Amino acid sequence: MKNWKNPTIALVVLVLGFALFSTGCGKDEGSSKSSATYQKAGISFQYPINWRSFRSEAVSGMRTQITSELRKFNRTLVSLDMYISSDEEVAFFVSKVQADNALSADDILAERRNVYEDATRAGDVTRVNKLERTTVNDLLAVVEDVERSNGGRGHTVKLLKGRLIVELSLIVNDKSKYDKHVGEYEQILATMKVQD
């Protein structure tokens, strides 16, 4: 898991960035043994049972970095959890952020455009595949899909519910592995529930 530390932190700070698992996880007794249930901070979904939580030190370090960045935007990190696939090809992050004021999809889109323009000028982001408004399970959301100069790719959905932003990020160090894992991410989104 050592190869995930620096590239992942850089991408997640970029992806979770300025908007912006231990956690009631376990087998879902009502479904097949191939998935587990995430349930924390009013968020629930099904994810591959063979994914494992990042070490608590890595999560703590990421939490500190994100908390610092979010303060600049009057936002508070409520929860953050991080998983890695058994083959260590993919990392998955879920966070819940509370803003001082409700944010629209247009607010998030404008913010993220600025982030990606800066990252592209700096040579970190090589391609923005998608940055647009969508809905996920009747919630307004912003979807982002970017490729990086280190060969990685990140796909993020930010669900907007009043002052809350629930962010789900799938990150691969090798973008050629993205198609192999995007189905797992789609299953998470299909089973996603956010409570008030």
Low-confidence stretches: 2-32
Structural class: alpha+beta
So what's the overall shape? globular
Mean pLDDT: 85
Largest sheet: 7 strands, antiparallel
What is the string of SSEs from the N terminus onward? HEEEEHEEHEEEEHE
Number of strands: 11
Plain-language structure description:
29% of the residues lie in helices and 40% in strands. By secondary structure, the protein is α+β, with helices and mostly antiparallel strands. The strands form two sheets. Strands 4-5-6-10-9-8-7 form a seven-stranded antiparallel β-sheet, with helices on both faces. A hairpin with a 2-residue loop joins strand 7 and strand 8 (139-148). The protein is globular. The model is unreliable at 2-32 (pLDDT under 50).
Briefly say what this structure is:
With 196 residues, the chain is of the alpha+beta class. It is 29% helix and 40% strand.
Strand and helix layout:
Blueprint: H1 5-15, E1 26-27, E2 35-40, E3 43-48, E4 52-53, H2 56-71, E5 75-84, E6 90-99, H3 105-121, E7 125-136, E8 139-148, E9 153-161, E10 164-172, H4 178-190, E11 193-194
Antiparallel strand pairs: 1-2, 2-3, 3-11, 4-5, 5-6, 6-10, 7-8, 8-9, 9-10
Helix pairs in contact: 1-2
Which descriptors would you attach to this protein?
196 residues, alpha+beta, 4 helices, disordered N terminus
